[in-house]
């Protein structure tokens, strides 16, 4: 995350002081045969008819969040205002999924091209329509393939663009957001990182943390010491075994 005047604002907005842990199938682009003048959604058991997606309306909505100095990009203040209007916290994981939908390159910023890419896919040209898609954005995380794609995206999205690695504080915040409800060993991993020599995570380490969380049992009995895990995870396993042995000795 860039260390500039906007950095603290973006970190607070997108990661927060204490990120909550919330957890699909990615929406397919509508084909010409299914395009109609209206899109339909279910509401209270009845079929609600919504106006068709309007790109000009979507662009006009985008402009509500830009500044006079940058009319083609929503900056940190605009993203914060969007979150306020959506009635969600900036650290809500739905915002990360929305950024993934847009293919946003930089945390705290949405370009017009990114905005149109994501919101055309979602068929949202208004605040009300996007509010109605928040549950859907959360549901995308339930599909393991899409979750993996979002997880990998989060590394590049949240790192400083002049760095190849992700600093530990940001990595821990994003891991908490993505794996907080999924990985029982996450807090132990954080404790390991805090006392370790690691100050950054590279992309290989980041991706292997997800695979480790899925493949290795809490008791570590199925951990293959001769496997192709990064050295960092070998060290974590050894540290955790010692930590558990010491804890049992004290008890």
UniProtKB/TrEMBL annotation:
Against Pfam families, the record matches this protein to: Cullin_binding
Q: Which InterPro entries match?
A: DCN-prot (IPR014764), DCN1-like_PONY (IPR042460), PONY_dom (IPR005176)
The residue ranges of the DCUN1 domain are 53-241
Cellular-component GO terms for this entry? ubiquitin ligase complex
Instruction: Look up the domain of life of the source.
Output: Eukaryota
Could you tell me which residues belong to the region Disordered?
1-42
User: What GO biological process terms are annotated to this protein in UniProt?
Assistant: protein neddylation
Identify a single GO molecular function assigned to this protein: cullin family protein binding
**Comp. bias regions, Low complexity:** 29-40
Under PANTHER family, the record lists:
DEFECTIVE IN CULLIN NEDDYLATION PROTEIN, RP42 RELATED
Could you tell me what this protein does? Neddylation of cullins play an essential role in the regulation of SCF-type complexes activity.
Name of the molecule in the record: Defective in cullin neddylation protein
């Amino acid at each position: 995350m860039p260390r500039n005047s906007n950095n603290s604002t973006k970190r607070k907005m997108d990661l927060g002081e204490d990120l909550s842990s919330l957890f699909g199938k990615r929406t397919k682009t509508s084909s010409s045969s299914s395009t109609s003048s209206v899109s339909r959604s279910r509401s209270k058991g009845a079929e609600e008819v919504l106006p068709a997606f309007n790109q000009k309306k979507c662009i006009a909505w985008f402009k509500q969040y830009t500044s006079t100095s940058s009319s083609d990009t929503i900056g940190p203040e605009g993203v914060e205002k969007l979150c306020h209007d959506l009635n969600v916290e900036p650290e809500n994981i739905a915002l990360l999924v929305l950024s993934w939908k847009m293919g946003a390159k930089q945390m705290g910023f949405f370009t017009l091209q990114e905005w149109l890419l994501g919101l055309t896919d979602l068929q949202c040209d208004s605040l009300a329509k996007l509010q109605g898609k928040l549950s859907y954005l959360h549901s995308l995380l339930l599909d393991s393939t899409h979750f993996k794609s979002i997880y990998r995206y989060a590394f590049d999205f949240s790192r400083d663009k002049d760095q190849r690695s992700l600093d530990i504080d940001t990595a821990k915040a994003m891991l908490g957001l993505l794996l907080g409800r999924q990985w029982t060993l996450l807090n132990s991993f954080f404790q390991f990182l805090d006392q370790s020599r690691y100050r950054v995570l590279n992309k290989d380490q980041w991706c292997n943390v997800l695979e480790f969380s899925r493949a290795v049992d809490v008791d570590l009995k199925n951990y293959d010491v001769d496997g192709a895990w990064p050295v960092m995870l070998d060290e974590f396993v050894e540290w955790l075994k010692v930590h558990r042995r010491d804890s049992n000795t004290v008890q």
